[in-house]
Design a protein that fits this description.
Length: 401
């Protein structure tokens, strides 16, 4: 090849690379979903047919405690008639940390958050607003609600281990994934397919990490990436699964973006990542701040998010521009001093469910009955009370498929 020909070939090669690069999605847009990026979203998982996985189903959860019993009940509801379709029970093992008390190691876990929602025990996390509580409790379960992650505490209260329980088992049907002396594993949550439990842990050298253990085989520790300690919860999404350590994590319907918040990180909407870890300064550079948003309820569409505003109303916000759209939606018409917190958005984005209660008190009705209402995201019509009386003030709405 002559010198001129070689130069021409090199120029064409550079132009070809630039041409290919120009067709790639921008950092704000995120990657295109599909086989080339199988970790974006949860649609790649085949789920068993059950009332918990069918369309137009609302899933709720309640923690129940008695003198010799502690358990979690997950229920699938018909949102039109509010008829109960199915209930699944998860026994909480004696060794599981579902409350914190003096003289034992404090545990940070969504299960402690769930079981302490109506007690005098404070949340293990800094904020316990329902927009924070709902997504982190949802992360305890796989997509089909067949397994629940737990943190197991040694009898001397000095070590903690990740584990899980099966639905419809008994008090002895649980799996301790590690029993090493000195384990410090917390924030246990379930992978979408239920085949691994993820958690934050502290190494013997004091390093803060995210780890996972398979629910099958020898349960060996897989190191998944950096963590910022136990103070923030985990959410695991995608195929293969990846974890993000942050609050108010909701995956967009197309899987290309997620909402999240973390201390000192600017923004609300982030590009979905292909590695596990906390939000950081690099994540914040391409994040979008949602104007006036104090609580993120969920995604209304691929590019629109429903927020609770500083005035206590709700509003749809454009995830690309960060600007509010349409009119503010009021879930409470009467002025009686109560507040409304958002819990879940329907899969079609047309409705959402709120809990109405006095400030710092979620027992909105006498006898512990919850005051839950279905509201249109467009603000049309009036809020419709949820008619199922078995839903108490302790009930947490997890999902509206």
């Amino acid at each position: 090849m002559t010198g001129k020909a070689a130069v021409l070939a090199a120029v064409l090669a550079v132009l070809g690379v630039q041409g290919c690069g120009s067709s790639q999605p921008t950092e704000e847009e995120g990657p295109e979903p599909g086989p080339s990026a199988p970790y974006w979203g949860n649609r790649g998982y085949a789920l068993p047919d059950s009332p918990f996985t069918r369309e137009d189903t609302v899933v709720t959860v309640t923690c129940s405690m008695g003198a010799r019993y502690a358990g979690v009940n997950v229920q699938a509801w018909d949102p039109e008639r509010w008829e109960l379709r199915e209930t699944r029970g998860f026994f909480i093992p004696v060794d599981a940390a579902f409350t914190n008390y003096p003289d034992v190691k404090n545990v940070t876990s969504p299960l402690v958050d769930l079981c302490g929602v109506s007690s005098d025990s404070p949340s293990p996390y800094a904020v316990d607003d329902l927009e924070y509580l709902t997504p982190r409790v949802r992360a305890l379960f796989d997509l089909a609600y067949t397994r629940m992650a737990v943190v197991l505490r040694d009898t001397d209260g000095r070590a903690t281990h990740a584990g899980y329980v099966e639905s419809e088992g008994n008090a002895d049907d649980f799996v301790r994934l590690s029993d090493a002396e000195g384990d410090d594993e917390q924030n246990a949550v379930m992978a979408p397919d239920g085949r691994s439990v993820w958690f934050t842990y502290i190494t013997a050298d004091g390093e803060r990490r995210i780890g996972s253990r398979s629910t099958e085989g020898e349960h060996r520790l897989s190191d998944e990436g950096p963590a910022i300690g136990h103070d923030l919860p985990l959410t695991v999404t995608g195929k293969p699964p990846r974890a993000v350590q942050a609050n108010m994590v909701h995956l967009a319907p197309d899987g290309r973006r997620l909402t999240a918040t973390a201390p000192k990180i600017y923004g609300h909407v982030f590009r979905t990542r292909d590695s596990s870890g906390p939000l950081n300064a690099a994540s914040g550079r391409s994040a979008r701040l949602l104007s006036g948003c104090v609580g993120i309820v969920g995604w209304v569409a691929d590019e629109r998010v429903l927020c609770r505003t500083q005035s206590g109303n709700f509003r749809t916000v454009d995830a690309r521009s960060g600007r509010a759209e349409g009119n503010a939606v009021a879930a409470i018409r009467e002025d009686d001093g109560r507040v409304a917190e958002g819990m879940v958005v329907s899969a079609d984005g047309e409705k959402f469910i709120v809990s109405v209660h006095l400030p710092n008190d979620r027992s909105g009705r006498p006898l512990g009955l919850g005051d839950f209402r279905v509201v249109s995201t467009s603000g049309e019509g009036v809020a419709v009370p949820v008619s199922a009386e078995s839903l108490t003030s302790d009930t947490v709405f997890l999902e509206w498929r």
